[in-house]
Amino acid sequence: MDRFSKRLSSGPPIVADGGMGSLVTSAVARLRCPEEANLRAPESVLSLHLGFIRAGAELIETNTFGANRHKLRTQYLEDEVKAINEAAVKIARDAREVSGRDVFIAGAIGPLGEIGARRDDRAALFTEQAELLEGRGVDLFLVETFYELDELETAIGAVRSVSSLPIVALLTFDEDAHTLGGVSAARAASALDDQDVAAIGANHGLGLQAALRALEQMSGSGKPLAALPNVGLASLAGQRVIFPHTTPEYFADFAAHAQELGARIIGGCCGTTPTQIAAIRDAVDAGRRSSVPMVVRERQVVVAVTEPERETLLQQKLRSGEFVVSVEIDPPRGGQAQAMLDLARTLKESGHVDVVDVNDNPRARARMSGLMASATIERVAEIETIPHLTPRDSSIAGLESMLLGAHAEGIRNVLAVTGDPPEAGDYPGSGGVYEVDSIGLSRIITQMNAGEDFNGREIDAPTSFFLGVAVNPAADDLGQELERFEQKLEAGAKFAMTQVLFDFAYLDAFFERLGRPCPIPLLIGIFYVKS
Question: I need a surface site. Which of 38, 52, 127, 384 has the fewest CB within 10 A?
Fold first, then answer.
């Protein structure tokens, strides 16, 4: 049995350190990410390690939570992945030597932050980081702050494929002791019982009470438990991240509760300072008992009952095989919508146009929201719309929020598009959000129609969007375009619209490569040539 596993199985709980990432960010100005400090300000990282050791931490984690190649790439630091990880271990080992205390050094590995990546791709990124950390001499791995059980299991398997060192595996839970993917702490513990890990538990999250609720559910596990929560829910004040104030007494009581629930590792995460870790140390050494009972609130669930939705005009026409005419319009670049509304009225009154499709910040130039413009057109001009929606400008939460608002305003047709690159628009120096691509956006809409958010969590009432997707038969790489089209079909697409076609030979080639008739209705994009 290795040294860490022996210590884990006997004596008082192991006291871990606190919020390295949040403290590094506060201590070192103008960092692209906390891990950059390992190269730019190693003395600051060393000082923080020493502060936690002096406070009584028996386990410190390397400053490598986000030091995988994928996350570093978003900060243009992917070429430094080896240097950053190796420097982090060296700094932690220096802290152990300077302090004169034989603390355990845990190689911190966090999630990738990439939604929808293939399991093999994710595993390779975790494997690379694990090899770098073990190569410099960590004692164990802290695989932490995972929001999805599936990704945590991928990380565990990747680490175990290259290392026999102990692994502490930690998930993040909400106030109801569920992951973002809807997995309960009890179910997660049951799944992790079969994994080759030294301990399991909860970290990060909404604070001490949330961690204790999760720990209570996990207490039936055969694995040792760990609890390393945030101080609480952070907020922004200007450019600063502010955590709620918690007294050392509160943390000491948390440590007592955690011990009673069987925790063998107790520490903190974001916002936790050496002061709170010292309080945990004192509580553990004194064998403190909790002074107040843990409060667990029941959640009231409200289920909305609604009438079945009627089909949109677009749905009706496409289902019956009728010919559909849609005209694409751009929202205004200002707050005045009258010209757009006049155009929409003219199109309706022509008698030749069934719907108008409304762009979403075309050419990456800021315009009136396509969803809001569409709601205004339907209300005032009384013609049905197909708003475009791109994941370029919004996070997943933002996309879901906008879709829910649009649904409440009566919008039902939506076209999921990738969107023009930011470099082509008003702010070429900015980067697109793109937490998902148009395929991921299609999945979001399909899951909302099923009454769930992107993580599979139940929403108050399902939506009833009629989902369309874009396809480009004239793409340079037709094979890739066909592959993406198949993925869009799997994601729930109900109709498709092509890019503008100037030569229908491209369409013939597309269907020939597809090898079957188009499985969903297809609207062909054409462009009027005016003299």
Answer: 127
Mean pLDDT of the chain: 90
Is it the case that residue 81 has pLDDT exceeding 70?
yes
Please compute the mean of the pLDDT values over residues 47-63 and round it to a whole number: 97
Higher-pLDDT residue of 286 and 13 is: 13
> How many angstroms separate the Cα of 125 from the Cα of each of 89, 159, 377?
18, 10, 47
Q: How far apart are CA 47 and CA 23, in angstroms?
A: 11
- Characterize 66-86 residue by residue with b for buried, 16 or more Cβ atoms within 10 angstroms of its Cβ, and e for exposed: bbbbbbbeeeebeebbeebbb
How does residue 233 score in pLDDT terms, banded at 50, 70 and 90?
low
Which tokens is 432 given? 């697109």
Question: Cα(355)–Cα(378) distance, rounded to whole angstroms?
Answer: 10
Instruction: Domain ranges for the chain, please list them.
Output: 3-286, 313-525
Return the percentage of the chain with pLDDT > 70, whole number. Answer: 92
pLDDT category of residue 488 using cuts at 50, 70 and 90:
very high
Do the Cβ atoms of 189 and 200 come closer than 8 Å? yes
CA dihedral 208, 212, 214, 217 (to 10 degrees): -170
- On the question of a common fold for 3-286 and 313-525, the answer reads yes
In this model, does residue 299 exceed pLDDT 50? no
Helix pair 274-286, 248-260: axis angle to 10 deg: 50
Cα 308 to Cα 295: distance, rounded to the nearest angstrom: 40
Return the CATH fold of 313-525. Answer: TIM Barrel (3.20.20)
Q: How far is CA 405 from CA 196, 319, 348, 411, 466, in A?
A: 45, 27, 25, 9, 16
Residue 346: the pLDDT is: 97
**In the predicted structure, residue 301 carries a pLDDT above the cut 60:** no
Looking up tokens 């992107």 gives: 454
Whose tokens are 């005209």? That residue is 327
Q: Provide mean pLDDT across the span 293-301.
A: 40
CA gap 508, 434 in Å, rounded: 32
Q: What distances in angstroms separate CA 272 from CA 154, 275, 277, 457, one per listed residue?
A: 28, 8, 7, 29
CA distances from 338 to 143, 197, 334, 355, 368 (A): 55, 63, 11, 18, 12
Q: Which amino acid is at 28?
A: V
The residues that bridge with 467 in the sheet, in sequence order, are 414
SS3 (DSSP) at 435: coil
Distance CA 137, CA 448 (A): 46
Tokens of 79: 């070429």
Which one of 3.20.20.330, 3.40.190.10, 1.10.10.60, 3.40.50.2000 gives the CATH number of domain 3-286?
Answer: 3.20.20.330
